Amino acid sequence: MIIGSILLGTLARLWMLKIDYRQYPGYPHGYAVHLTLGMIAAGLGAMVLPALLEKDYVAITFLALAAQQFSNIRGVEREFLNHLEETELVPRGTAYIEGIAKVFETRNYLALLVALISTIGFKLFEWYGGIIFGVLTALILQNAMREKVVKDIADVKVVDLEFKGDEGENIAIGDVIIMNVGVKESLEYWQKNGIGIVLDPKDDNARATLANTGQRQAILHDVATQLGVRLDVGVQDYTPLARLNLDTGRVVIIIIPIEPDEKWIKKAVEKTPVLEGSKRRPLASEAGHAAAD
Amino acid sequence: MEVSLTNNILAIVTLESNKDKVEGGGAPVFYVEDEEELEYVAMLISRLTLSMAHNLGNGVYILVKH
């Protein structure tokens, strides 16, 4: 029973690693670390029911220890990504890193819960009960933990850049001037290869969320990782930027992707997760709701 | 540890004829002969100091690290 539950919990952890390719840097050592910790989590979860049945209530306290351990994981993951940040051409931003670290911590608790519930299944029915309980729990939890993506809160459009000013030195989208580029060569490059993206928030909640700089940086990072970005150290002129239209709350983004494929740029933006730390819900408050019209 | 001066004007590049538009201050001023040199000097300083060249629209370029 215990071994079966541990196995199920670990498998659940593995599955959660797999379905989230983007937040995962994809290094084999990382897999090893998270699988092992997932197994430990599952082991602890599997122990709970037998301990209770033995009336060994003190043993439950080891769960507190587990919680302690898993919050360490968040620290480890955060530290790792923060160190990498300096080497990223387009940084993830602290908000994205916090989000990823938190997800990693949470998934260990999920592995623990899967193991715990499948022991109950094993106890109530035979081995098949355990498996059914375990798989169901994993599915339900995974669904409950599903994050929103940018597509849910905003309409994404790919647009052309405009160049304003005497020599066209100001790169703009609509009324928003985003960047002033002095060097002509860079300017021509922007004219030829630059792509603009407009995010139109669907409501006031979305507007407040997109205004968060962490959320915008996350979008830039995701687009840059998936479509590539023409950028190097010392070439600041091609830095992608995301700015806000203060009148409408639209977010405008400029970037020079390596693959200028509009359809997939749109997709990459849409699939960016809405960060937990950036999420704002002014409409849920009385003042915010009344003030919005 | 790397220390850098951000959001400050690191250098100013402009044409000799624009001398009255710029006064020396915190940042060095580079006077250049023509547009071509202006472009080149601005680009070079930008690359070397990891800063960004901005065109103020009146023939004066400033270099700012962001």
Q: Structural class given helices, strands, pairing of chain B?
A: alpha+beta
Shape of chain B: globular
Strand residue percentage of chain A: 5-15%
Q: Give the percentage of residues in beta strands of chain B.
A: 25-35%
General shape of chain A:
elongated
What's the Cα radius of gyration of chain A?
23 Å
Placed side by side, the strands forming the largest sheet of chain A appear as 1-5-7-6
List the strand order in the largest sheet of chain B.
2-1-4-3
Profile the largest sheet of chain B: 4 strands, mixed
- Relative helix content of chain B: 10-25%
Summarize the model shown.
The complex is a heterodimer of chains A (293) and B (66). Chain A has helices spanning 2-18, 28-53, 62-85, 94-124, 127-144, 150-153, 184-193, 204-211, 213-227, 262-270, 286-291, and strands spanning 154-159, 162-164, 170-173, 176-180, 195-201, 241-244, 251-255.
Would you give an account of this structure?
The complex is a heterodimer of chains A (293) and B (66). Chain A is α+β, with helices and mostly antiparallel strands. Chain A folds into two domains: 2-144, no CATH class; 150-291, no CATH class. Helices cover 57% and strands 12% of the residues of chain A. Chain A contains eleven helices and seven strands. In chain A, helix 2 (28-53) packs antiparallel against helix 3. With 66 residues, chain B is α+β, with helices and mostly antiparallel strands. Chain B has one domain (9-64). Chain B contains one helix and four strands. In chain B, a hairpin with a 4-residue loop joins strand 3 (52-55) and strand 4 (60-64). The longest helix of chain B has 14 residues, at 35-48. The A-B interface holds A 165-167, 169, 180-185, 233-237, 239 and B 39, 42-43, 46-48, 50-55, 57, 61-62, 66.
